[in-house]
Amino acid sequence: MRYRKLIWVVVLGPALGVVLVACGSSGTTAPKAGSSPSASASAAPASGSATAQITADWQAFFNAKTPVARRVELLQNGQVFAPVIRAQAGSTLASAATAQVTKVTLVSPAQAKVTYSILVGGTPQLKNQAGVAVLQDGTWKVGDASFCGLLALENGGSTSGLPAACHHAG
Fold first, then answer.
1. Helix (H/G/I), strand (E/B), else coil: 112
2. Strand partners of residue 130
3. pTM for the full model?
4. Percent helix, strand and coil across the chain, each to the nearest 5
5. Which of 13, 54, 65, 81 is the most exposed, fewest CB within 10 Å of its CB?
6. How far apart are CA 6 and CA 45, in angstroms?
7. Strand positions, DSSP E, the chain
8. Closest CA to 77 of 137, 131, 24, 8
9. Edge-to-edge strand ranges of the sheet holding 111-120
10. DSSP 3-state assignment of 101?
11. Exposure on the CB side of residue 2, measured as CA atoms within 13 A
12. What is the pLDDT of residues 74-106, one digit of tens each?
């Protein structure tokens, strides 16, 4: 039960996209959003520039101090999720949540795997999570499949009631 509460605080509190499922490290499968780019290239370490941008954008998305409008911009198809992000932006508990990116691996020119941890008050709570970043409109963003995966986990594994983008099969 504590784990579910932590998910609620970290994900829905600031409406930040934690990926527990997108790339499979947790063993749970995430619903795929229809607009995610496919991984057509073999995985390779991201270039320094891409790594730095993905890391900065990912951490900004997970930072409650980042303005809501910017967080919406940093989520793939963020406008679809804007109401969720806005509704939860004021959560006091979530204001202490941040992300720490530890590894970025490009899988195509427009998609990367991200390994990261969620910290609450500086203490790691969800370690070595697998996520996905996508290049959309010239910006590296948290993949909506990542965000949907955790929303579904919080919703007991169901996509019922989640934004329409979470219902698309990839």
1. strand
2. 115
3. 0.71
4. 35, 25, 40
5. 65
6. 31
7. 44-45, 97-108, 111-120, 123-136, 139-142
8. 137
9. 44-45, 97-108, 111-120, 123-136, 139-142
10. strand
11. 2
12. 999 999 999 988 877 776 656 778 889 999 999
What size, in residues, is the chain?
Answer: 170
Which regions in the chain score pLDDT beneath 50?
1-4, 6, 8-44, 169-170
* Alpha-carbon span 115 to 131, nearest angstrom: 6
**What's the one-letter identity of residue 126?**
L
70-107 burial string, b = 16+ CB within 10 Å, else e? Answer: ebbbbbbbbebbbebbeebbebebbbbbbbbbeebbbb
| 118 within 8 A of 10, measured Cβ to Cβ | yes
Dist. CA 32–CA 143, nearest whole Å = 10
> Quick one: tokens of 90?
């004021």
Cβ atoms of 28 and 150 closer than 8 Å: no
Tell me whether residue 20 is exposed, middle or buried, using C-beta atoms within 10 angstroms of its C-beta: 0 to 12, 13 to 18, 19 or more: buried
